[in-house]
Design a protein that fits this description.
11 strands; 35% helix
């Protein structure tokens, strides 16, 4: 009595592909806020020079061959904060001009720094693609579903949550809003930015940004050059970077503390006058003791000013 041998089918190509680990698209190892801190730490040690990779990672507390150190370098490069040169043991890294502009700009308020941070947030390709498609209108749950099932290439389930956290933290830190555009803008002609009159742009030449703040395009000269405000020369179109519209400048000569608090936070007293006009006194609803003392002193000055405003009494008629 013979026994039929059991035939085990050879694994198909589809079976083998299913066993392969799904690799998520590349995304930064750290969020932008952390990346800028790492850039500053590097600049503190290497203020104007390149450093070998094995030296750079030690500035962040990593061992020479640590994967975390190499991933940090990759993250800084994806945000446009760092660049490399050479290969193998001769590979070195240095901060880009944009990276140095951000970490060395210590002004309390800086439109230039804010614009560069927004630009850095959208430098990673996955960030730019998601922001261009959804802005801030998609929930975490819908974003997760999209990345797992609809995005190409799809994300691995084990890493998708880490990416969403990094992406959200970066968008929040950069203070991006729905009006902010991707720079450079993704278009239908192979991804090349097509300048338009009225766009605000930055000019990058030789790896360095040429403007302290974005400038508005005033004229398209030809297929290769444009003209921007406050400039008579043509700027190469290929070296332009689309930027967000800058916020309106503050009026010169008017300090922030001179601006009155919103009406809803003010107390008001109106005194009707015999002339039919009225005097209006306003002060903030909540005051510190030192402010109360200052106002009391100011009231004494106000009393003297009011006294000097007194109209002279009518002189008696001396003809009688």
């Amino acid at each position: 009595m013979s026994t039929a041998s059991k035939v085990i089918p050879a694994p198909t190509q589809a079976d083998n592909s299913e066993k392969k680990r799904l690799r998520s698209p590349a995304y930064p190892f750290v969020n932008l806020e952390t990346a800028i801190k790492r850039a500053k730490a590097f600049n503190d040690r290497e203020p104007s020079s390149a450093a070998p990779v094995r030296v750079a990672v030690k500035h962040w507390g990593y061992e020479e061959k640590s994967s975390g150190g190499l991933q940090t370098i990759a993250a800084l490069m994806s945000f446009g904060l760092m660049q490399d040169e050479g290969t193998g043991q001769k590979r070195k890294v240095r901060l880009t001009d944009m990276g140095r502009r951000i970490v060395l700009d210590t002004r309390l308020e800086s439109t230039e720094r804010d614009a560069l941070i927004k630009r850095a947030a959208l430098m990673p390709k996955i960030h730019a693609a998601l922001w261009s498609k959804y802005r801030d209108t998609i929930s975490d749950a819908n974003l997760r579903h999209t990345l797992l099932f609809d995005w190409e290439p799809k994300f691995n389930e084990k890493t998708v949550d880490n990416f969403i956290r990094e992406y959200r933290d970066t968008i929040k830190f950069a203070k991006l809003s729905s009006s902010d555009t991707v720079a450079p803008e993704v278009t239908d002609n192979g991804g090349e930015y097509v300048p338009k009159v009225g766009d605000y742009v930055q000019w990058e030449s030789g790896g360095a940004l040429q403007y302290a703040a974005p400038k508005r395009i005033t004229e398209i000269l030809n297929d290769d050059f444009v003209r921007v405000e406050d400039s008579v020369t043509g700027i190469p179109r290929a070296e332009l970077i689309l930027e967000s519209v800058p916020p309106p400048a503050k009026p010169e000569g008017k300090a922030e503390w001179h601006r009155p608090p919103p009406k809803t936070h003010m107390q008001e007293m109106v005194v009707p006058l015999s002339s039919g006009s009225r005097a209006v006194f306003q002060w903030p609803r909540e005051l510190k003791q030192e402010d109360v003392d200052d106002l009391k002193d100011s009231l004494e000055i106000l009393k003297r000013k009011i006294s000097r405003s007194t109209a002279p009494a009518d002189k008696p008629d001396e003809s009688k």
